[in-house]
Amino acid sequence: MFNKKLITDIDVKSQKALVRVDFNVPIKDGKVEDDTRIVAALPTIRYLLDQGAAVILCSHLGRPKEGPDPKYSMRPTAEHLSKLLGRPVAFCEESVGPVAESAAKALKPGEVLVLENTRFYKGETKNDPEMSRQLASLADVYVNDAFGSAHRAHSSTEGVARLLPGVAGFLMEKEIKYLGAAIADPKRPFIAILGGAKIVDKIGVIRNLLQIADAILIGGGMANTFFAAQGYPMGDSLVDADALDTAREILQGAGNRLRLPVDVVIADSFDDSASRQVMDVGPVPEGWRIMDIGPETIAAYAKVVNGAGTVVWNGPMGVFEMPNFAVGTFGVAKAVAESDAVSIVGGGDSVSAINRSGLSDKITHISTGGGASLEMLEGLTLPGVAALQDK
Ligand code: AMP
Question: Which CATH topology does 7-170 take?
Answer without folding.
Answer: Rossmann fold (3.40.50)
